[in-house]
Structures are given as C-alpha cells and as structure tokens.
Design a protein that fits this description.
Blueprint (H helix, E strand, L loop, with lengths): L1 E3 L23 E2 L7 E5 L5 H13 L4 E4 L5 H12 L3 E8 L2 E7 L7 E4 L4 H12 L2 E7 L10 H9 L3 E3 L8 E6 L5 E5 L6 H9 L7 E5 L7 H13 L4 E2 L5 E4 L9 E2 L8 H10 L1 E5 L13 H4 L6 E5 L2 E5 L14 E3 L7 H9 L5 E4 L11 H11 L3 E5 L2 E5 L6 E3 L5 H13 L3 E3 L12 H8 L15
Parallel strand pairs: 1-3, 3-16, 4-15, 7-8, 11-12, 19-20, 23-24
Antiparallel strand pairs: 2-24, 4-6, 5-6, 8-10, 9-10, 12-14, 13-14, 16-18, 17-18, 20-22, 21-22
Length: 468
Amino acid sequence: MQIFRYSGPEFSPYGDDERQAVSDPGPWAAPVASGSLSAVVELPGSKSLTNRELVLAALANSPSTLFSPLRSRDSSLMVEALRSLGTGIAEGDDGTYGPDLVVTPGELTGGTSVDCGLAGTVMRFLPPVASLALGPVAFDGDAAARRRPMRTTIDSLRALGVDVSDDGRGALPFSLYGTGKVDGGELTIDASASSQFVSGLLLSAPRFRRGLDLRHEGETLPSMPHIDMTVAALRARGVTVDSPEPGRWVVSPGSIAALDVVIEPDLSNAAPFMIAALVAGGTVAIPRWPEQTTQVGAHLEALLQRWGATMTRSGGVLTVDGHEGVAGGRSLPGIDLDLSLGGELAPALVALAALADGASTITGIGHLRGHETDRLAALAQNINALGGEVTELPDGLHVEPRPLVGGPWRAWDDHRMAHAGAIIGLAVPGVLIDDIAATDKTMPEFAELWRHTVGAAPATRVDPLGIF
C-alpha cells in the first residue's frame, strides 16, 4: 500500500502570498490512472477551520496555538492580514505539514491594507475584525475577487455604524475606518449568496459592545454546516451563542478564550482523492478522519456510496473502495442530488457524474456562480468542450454522460476547477489543465500528492497544440 506525505520543495507561504508550489507556466497534463489504486493520502489541515481559528485566536484574551494548520495561499493571506492589524503570529514546533502557529493577540490598529487574494474567508471575515481596529483599512484582491459578492458585508458594517467607502460597487476594492469599537445589537441581512457573510459577523460579534442578534432573511441559506462550524468554534472558546430559531443567531458580548486547537484534515479537499478510487478502481484511505465534525466534506462518506463505493472505518482511517472503477469497466449510476449543505463538493462530484453511465442532476448550488469563478458555467463549458453534455439549471447542473476526449481544461483561478479536471483526466487521456497552480489556494501540494496517489509518472507541462 502506498503512503505519501508531501516532501517536495518547501512551501513557506507566511510573508509571501505568491503561488510558489507549482510556479512553472503552461498547462499540466493530468495523469491517467495506470492501474488500480492502493494509497493512503495524508491531507493537510482544513482551510475553513484554520482561517476561523486564526481569527478567533487574534481576538482572544491570550495566546493560542494552532497545531497542523493549513499552509496555503488562503491561510497565508489570513496570517498576513492579521499581522498587519497588530496580531503576533509566529511559527512553533514543526509538524507533518510545517510549523504550528502561535497566535498572540495585540491591540488592533489600522493604517494598513489587506490583500484578500481570492479568499472568501479573508474578504468576508476580516472587515468586521478591522472595524474593531483604530484607523483606516483598505481591502482589495485578485482581479477575479472583484467579481465576488461583497455587498452584504459592506451593508452590514454600515448598518452597525462603521464608515465604509466602496463608491457604490458593493464589491472589492473598498475601505473602512475603524474607531476601535462596534456597538453591535440587532442586524438583519440576506446571506443567500454565501454563508460566509454570517460567519464573518459571528466571529467578531463577541467583541461588539452589545454582541449581535443576527437574522438572515432571504430565499436560501447555503452551506449551513459552515455556519455550524463557526458556532462550534465560538462555543469552544467560551462564547455564548444561541440560535432561538432557524436563520437567527444571538452572540453575547464577552471575552474570547485562548485555546490550543488541533486542525482537522481538510475533508473537502479529500473529495478528488476519494473519487479517484471510483474512477481508477482500488482503494484510497484517509487517515485522521474525524468521528464527528462540522466539515461539509464529511458528507462524502454517504454520497460516494450512492455511486457504488464501499466505505470502511478502522483506527481513525476512512477507506474508500471503488472496486474495479470506471477504468476497469465498472458502471456508475446517475443520481439526483441536492447539495445545498455542501456546494463546495459539487465540482468534484460533477466530474464524477460526467464519467457515469446514467444522467445526474445536481441542485442546491446556484450560489456557486459567485465563488472563485462561476463554477456552474465553468463546469459546463469545460466538460462540453471535451464532448460532454452538461446543461445549466437555475439552481444547478444536469449531466448527460457522453464519451469524452482529451483537450484543454480551464481552471479560471479556481482550485476546485483544477481538481475536477484532474478527476476527468484519470479516465480521459490528454486533459490539459491550464493552471494547476490554482490549487495553491487550499492545497499547494495537490499536483505532487495526486501524482503519487494515482501511481503516475512525474507530471509534465506540455502544449502540443499551441493553444495556451
């Protein structure tokens, strides 16, 4: 059985937010499965947990240590933003994926700018924190970040009395002037576009003078498990959070306790590796799979069984058995799936659906149009360009499997688009991902880890058609 821990070039994102892990230009030839898998994949820490715990540790009453935090572009951007606001963040003991982080709260000060990159957690979690600082703070990010919905955050801060200037864009770039305090109290928002609007306010709410009584009013509220994750992280640090009715959260004002936290592996990033077992056949085991978690990736255990995978647990390891897999002639059924609770899993699951034998309809993911890219349009365009048939729906995608051929696959700066292309490439020779470095966002070691998992020869960058 193959066990792989990342041992490639050292990735040190702290203090340098450029994408370093895979820096060579040009497309990446997705490796085709060379045979049935037998791999153990040790995943780095959860991005969602790492960035929530970084914020809470920065607002806490004394230092905290984060064990096995994610080291990626998103977490680097969060570290640098918090440092610029006055938080001390230092590397501690060396763990499997690099040093632990010791976070020492400091007096929050403005007079700085925050680079959000393409990280939704930075652009939506940090403005409420910056509102507690004294002085101006400017926010901007990548070109694609300026297309991501931000109006709810901006309008929320204004409703709380914070001076925000965005020239009416409701998007990046914008700036605010913190006065060192936020009154808080009652607030109603529409978080239909992202659960991060709720989480961003809840994380800082204990530091508001009156706490926060937050209500969501809108047609939908996607990714509720992410809000549950935020609430659980707050309660673990001694914060009183009540939810007297669906769509309402009441956070009491008070101190945020210091806490040493072990970051769980990123279960959403487990998706392409687990799905690889269904495509290539064989088994993929994920160590440290938690018995209980608020991560949406936990749904993969049940979801992949609907496509015929067998799941076993032993000693904290979850093993996916894809049997002979698509590559071995296994027929995968089409399924109808509501992914309202875990939309971030959709790109990988849509890629799997495109390799099935029956039609699939995946709904509850309309909000993915406002992520790193319009994920619904990106998936449809990419798969259709390879000969597939994917139709956009108001709230999802309908997939009619067709024989696929190799060709270009665009990542559109989106890590999950790159993951989806790698999945397709396991069964379809010649899939060329234009920007595998997009995976640096949450897993800079993805290309190397993927290559070892599927037993491929070293991945190469090629441009045989001169199209990139």
